[in-house]
TrEMBL record, chains A, B:
Its EC number is 2.3.1.31. It comes from Skermanella stibiiresistens SB22. The keyword Acyltransferase applies. GO terms for cellular component: cytoplasm. It is found in: Cytoplasm. Keywords: Acyltransferase, Amino-acid biosynthesis, Cytoplasm, Methionine biosynthesis, Transferase. Homodimer. Pathway: Amino-acid biosynthesis; L-methionine biosynthesis via de novo pathway; O-acetyl-L-homoserine from L-homoserine: step 1/1. One of its GO terms (molecular function) is homoserine O-acetyltransferase activity. The gene is metXA. This is Homoserine O-acetyltransferase. PANTHER family: HOMOSERINE O-ACETYLTRANSFERASE.
Length: 406, 406
């Protein structure tokens, strides 16, 4: 999957001061001195993580922002994507003068482990065999993804992130960062997310996995070695998931019952309706940029996510630190029409943070755009991000507009 | 699909008076004298419809209730199902002394055309070739299903149905009955339904169809002639659909994040969670009782359903009759946690009926059971059905407990 992605610099071993915006596709080998132990017990050593950086790390390395991507996202946050040629998935939010201001912050985003855009994952070569891992790749968790990110910031010499921010599965990683490394995170912005994957969430993921596994070209996960691709199954998985990213109202507004380039229905199984054509397009284009096994692994990581379960079933306990509340400042954001990660899930996190008297604010943004709102033009949401970042920057003593470098 | 279903009497040509409860699997050949013209323009002649009857038709044939089944339902409403061995899908509602009281009413339910339980459909033999139709079967609509039902009651000598009742796609048929044949329906009970399929509804159906068509064993619809079955694709379609039948709350209550016969997760792709195991079971058992092409045809019929579109885009116009309101009495029921056919859709029908000053009542039943509530133990809902039926029976002059026969 990664062969077509040009590296815009060799694996990063240089000092990170002075990075300019646009180093969006770097590689680093982590776990060299000491292997990283995964939740499943397997140890990864000498594994690759792909990442991008935007902006400049200041002298005291206090302006680093970790952006965590969602299920099918990657580290091309703000630059043009090398495969699709489109702007990065969060270019509306991350860039010079934008809410996550790369004139002020040093933004880091790494492709999650288990992914397929350069970080170690099931499509990468297994050193033991010289062939793609396939299902021999160990099952990873959200905590494992964050462990790798922690090694990355260690590598970059950053002791404490100014902020960790992300939506959906990115938001899970934000929560996990705050819980696993509370002293390494100043502020946390979990967006459209939850502290656990619900039964309905798991159910939708299971449908996607079964769609992939039902495709004979999946070859029990060994398709890369057999020079096949389970494109049909992966497309169906994407179509099913895509519906969950949109609200019923958004689908109605965008498509309603409008027909596709025709005046009347065809009495057949072509894409009569625009919404059918749109969904098929989502499925077809997805398979060009995503690995089916990565889809299995990453959905599984989300299913396993349950912060409370790791803390005696009490979510608030996840946010206790040295006899008091977590030192991390939180701002939770949900979207009113998001039925995949509904506001109730964000509220549960807020209640848990309140229960330990942590520093937390919460905004439910009114929108009909559904779960995908965190990726879309949503001015109120962007104001929330900017406001929280600005306030925390002031508190952290970060001056504005690169002044820290002067 | 139908070979294993025993007929419990020869195709019904006898007089219908005196039918006893339990004649749940009859056959009739319709369209013999005159072919039935489908919306797509194709004419069907001499086609089979499978149906069941329960209770006794009274002397003036005024106590007939047409029950319309949902997507994957059939005519085994109240008897034991010959394939699954389980009680009929609405045995809670239909039977002696039950809300749709077979001591009082003569209940008829026919397998929809396009189905796979005995009525003509894509799995049946094409007279032109002597082989299963497959995709040569014409695409049918909800109105076509109701046309066939109208021919059935003509055959049974019934001029006017006392009531037409059904949920989900059954409710679409109820609405279509009232619009197509307002003088042949005394009362209508559309449950958990809508006057049109929404963009989200179409999207979910399209995912199911694509899952079936992605299965190589679908063979472009010709699997029966090639002795294959697209079981994997059909199972995925069923799994995706099944999620939409339940509310998030119901899934949480039933399964939550409970693990399946284990203490900890397996770090693999087996069904770790009970909800995964449940969904897989839904998929696997479905393929034993349903034909994949029928699934395509029936979902398509639902997608095409749009009562307003046939009436200049104004739903109220569908309910005008001879310069006034429809003579049909309506009772609409929705379920508060049904997100597939939400209350707003029922309200839209109620508003349209109000706009023409029709006789309509409406109940939103508070439940967390989601769309499937119409098939489940839901006492308030059952009271609504009983109350409306009793009130209409009084108005219609139907005496109680078989008194009409005395």
């Amino acid at each position: 999957m990664t062969a077509s992605i040009p590296l815009n610099q060799p694996p990063a071993t240089a000092e990170v001061e002075g990075f300019v915006s646009g180093r969006s596709n770097q590689r680093v080998t982590l776990g060299v001195d000491q292997p990283m132990r995964l939740d499943c017990g397997v140890e990864l050593s000498g594994f690759t993580v792909a990442y991008g950086t935007y902006g400049t790390l200041n002298a005291d390395k206090s302006n680093a922002v970790m952006v965590c991507h969602a299920l099918t996202g990657d580290h091309f946050v703000s630059d043009y994507h090398p495969v699709s040629g489109k702007p990065g998935w969060w270019s509306m939010l991350v860039g010079p003068g934008r809410p996550i201001d790369t004139d002020r912050y040093f933004v880091i985003c790494s492709n999650v482990i288990g992914g397929c855009m350069g970080s170690i994952g099931p499509a990468e070569s297994n050193p033991a065999t010289g062939r793609p891992y396939g299902l021999d790749f160990p099952v990873i968790t959200i905590a494992d993804m964050v462990r790798a990110q922690k090694l990355l910031i260690d590598h970059l010499g950053i002791e404490k992130l100014f902020c960790v921010v992300g939506g959906s599965m990115g938001g899970m990683q934000v929560l996990q960062w705050a819980v696993s490394y509370p002293e390494s995170v100043f502020a946390a912005l979990p967006i459209a997310t939850a502290a656990r994957h619900s039964a309905q969430n798991i159910a939708f993921h299971e449908v996607g996995r079964q769609a992939i596994m039902a495709d004979p070209d999946w070859c029990n996960g060994d398709y890369l070695n057999q020079e096949k691709r389970p494109h049909r199954g992966l497309a169906v998985a994407r179509m099913a998931a895509h519906i969950t990213y949109l609200s019923e109202a958004a689908l109605h507004r965008k498509f309603g019952r409008n027909l596709q380039n025709r005046q009347t229905v065809t009495y057949g199984f072509d894409a009569d309706f625009q919404v059918e054509s749109y969904l098929r397009h989502q499925g077809i284009t997805f398979v060009d940029r995503f690995d089916a096994n990565s889809y299995l692994y990453i959905t599984r990581a989300m299913d396993y996510f349950d912060l409370a379960a790791e803390h005696g079933g009490v979510l608030a306990n996840a946010f206790r630190h040295e006899g008091g509340p977590t030192p991390v400042r939180f701002c939770l954001t949900s979207f009113s029409s998001d039925w995949l990660f509904p506001t109730t899930e964000s509220r549960a996190v807020v209640h848990a943070l309140n229960a330990v008297a942590a520093n937390v604010s919460f905004v439910e943004v009114a929108t009909d755009k559904g779960h995908d709102a965190f990726l879309l033009e949503e001015p109120h949401f962007h104001q929330v991000v900017r406001g929280f970042m600005d306030g925390c920057a002031e508190h952290r003593g970060l001056t504005n507009r690169r002044a820290a470098l002067v």
